[in-house]
Amino acid sequence: MTETIELGDISIAVTRKGIKNVHLSVHPPHGRVTLVAPTATRLEVARAYAISKLGWIREQRQKLTNQARETPRKYVNRESHFLWGRRHLLTIVQGDCKPFVALDHRRMTLTVRPGSDAAKRAEVIHEWHKAMLHEEVPPLIEKWERKLKVDVRCYFLQRMKTKWGSCNHRAGHIRLNTELIKKPKDLLEYVIVHELVHLIEPAHSDRFIAILEKHYPTWREARAELNELPLTAEVWNE
């Protein structure tokens, strides 16, 4: 059951779980605030804790407000597109053949049939992004399956509006956001590690943090970098 704390213009969704410490989070892109507390925590206690952290909450929300956002892509010549954290200039070539994308240093060349619109061009690039991720993801999963002694039965790539990844621990499945192709590769690895740890501990509990700390001690820096990078231009629904 979720309850809500109202602090002026800030609404905080409160849930209780079998954890030892309170976890307060401000989520991109719009600053949604959640508080996860130990099972026996009274709402008045959770409220007092939230009030004590009000300055921090406002600071985090302001960071999200100031965070750079990508302008909507038009898929035209000399437009900037990011790949593994580096900017590439797009070149459009028209040809009567199956659409494809090629890389040459910092240039991304998209070959499409004459008359293709922005939606079709976006679709071609998205499928290309998925193909590249399918090359990078399996070796990383195998590496961390061995380290964490877990078994990933299947992974999926898809556009995700509010998360970089998710895990169905019962089925042994993980999902990864295709937007990760635009971020540095080490951040893709961090997200994969994060989701694989959920196969051991489903909740964001103290145990989860301890496992992540042990196996990926720079996770806080990776998370901060991921959240500081430009947000996609897509309208996110929370």
Automatic annotation (TrEMBL):
Pfam families: YgjP-like. InterPro entries: UTP_pyrophosphatase-like, YgjP-like_metallopeptidase. Coiled coil: none annotated. Residues 23-228 form the YgjP-like metallopeptidase domain. It comes from the Bacteria. Gene3D superfamilies: Metalloproteases ('zincins'), catalytic domain (3.30.2010.10). PANTHER family: UNCHARACTERIZED PROTEIN YGJP (PTHR30399), UTP PYROPHOSPHATASE (PTHR30399:SF1). This is M48 family metallopeptidase. It comes from Bradyrhizobium sp. LLZ17.
